[in-house]
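lol ok so funny story. i was supposed to be doing the assay writeup but got distracted and ended up predicting the structure for this chain instead. priorities right. anyway since i did it might as well share w the group, maybe its usefull for someone
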Amino acid sequence: MRILFVIGNLGDYHVPRYEALVSAASSRGHQVALLEVFARSGVYGFPQERRAAFFANRPRMAETLVENGADSDGLGALDTARLIAKVRNFEPDVVITLGYNTGYSAVLCFLRHLTRRFKLIYMSDSKADDGLRQRTKERLKRFIVSRFDGALVAGEKHRRYAQSLGIPKERSRIGFDVIDVDYFSDLAQAASDNPEAVRSRFGLPQRYVLCVSRFVARKNVDVLIDAYRKSGVYNENIGLVLVGQGPLEAQLRARIASLGLMPHVTILSSLANQDMPNLYALAEFVVLASEFDQWGLCVNEAFAAGCPAIVTRTCGVAGEVVIDGVNGFVVEPRDVSTLAQRIGELGGEPALRKRLAAGAQSTIRRWTPLLFASSALELAEVTTRRTSDPARHELV
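and the output, tada:
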């Protein structure tokens, strides 16, 4: 079987997923090729070091379509024609792409139904409670999504949403939002072995609660600040470290000052992916207080570092990765009192933290790139039959 993996930009999170897919596919006698549409990320401002290392090794059957563009850019007519030519030249049995509403996924969907020569699988972490849903938009979305052959999604609630959009459950699998667990775990262990150097490098307090989030309204960082104040853990010299940036930064700083928390709160700009294990390793626990979050990869990362989490029910990881009372706590969005109570419990009970941390490390062993790869291959095999032509088709 020939599988073409088409993605807007192969960011650092996607590299281990793709590499696992290539390895697993090869073991089954399948071929996988990568077509990265844009060379730059329109989302992450920091260098994508794993992507750079991946392409520096000149991987076989992998190339970038638009070298001077970002995945926030649209596809022009010329690049659209080039994308179509690449796909037709490779002659895939299956195309796996990111999302169902990007310009390149729309082109692939059109081409799939025009030629009827390959099956099309999309990857997504959308779910039903990601904010207010409008009936008209959902009908249009269903019209589009039902034209795809399968869906590789984040978790079971995302799978149910895909089903509501026209993808039967037998043609969906979970495992999209995974991380390289061993990579994060190893770096976190190295940080734990030299904690004072890490604290000095990043300006970290001796003990702290960690939040990794953009400073936008739906992330509810203001709610976390209020809950942190209400919990009183700052009186026990447990600080709050916020990692992120965004349009609400000035408002959040003002709120911190008005609550008298400036000596207890540290704000760091967004750090490179490879720096984050240092912060997870030394944190007491992480908090994701979002109004809603499609997933919450920072929780995967924290769990790999043995750091438990408090998340809201409307985060994708809730009930999927974060199991209440097993490896963290799940609370309702904007429930300051309950969030403050949980912060106080985790901050004040070392035995509880240790138990939940062990649960976190145990849980995350399932959510690895191997799950992504096996789910992707299952979908490829479900949606199409293996071709008998053993010929090798290169991207040109």
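Residues 50 and 134 are 38 Å apart (CA to CA). The first strand starts at residue 2 and ends at 7.
back to the writeup now i swear
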